[in-house]
Amino acid sequence: MYEISADPARLDVPRIHDWLANDSYWARGRTLATQEAAMAGSLNFGAYHPTTGAQHAYARVVTDHATFAYLCDVYVDPAARGQGLGTALVTAVRDHLAPYGLRRILLATDDAHSVYAKVGFEPLKSPANWMVLGVH
Length: 136
Hints:
This protein has 136 residues and is of the alpha+beta class.
């Protein structure tokens, strides 16, 4: 059982950056400076091996702690995949945010819909209501 924590002191920033910049489809090429800035303005979660303490997963939440949150940069180390860690991490994030009474937690994924559905996420009911400014 992995330990999931929102303690920023435990984050393995170089490892997180390597995962996202070199292995993710959504943050490929992200600089370390950009990653550090993103983390500084966010609520960050790590999942840690119970024996070694090594970080095996990461998730980041951009939120105002009152009405809205955006869950992003969810990543599970390839060696730890297939064990339910992604679901456990997203469940811990959801539970951590629950006391805020947020109206909406949003995320985007190309390939992990089933992971998020297990935790209660569902497709947008009115996707035509949403708009984006920027690269997509």
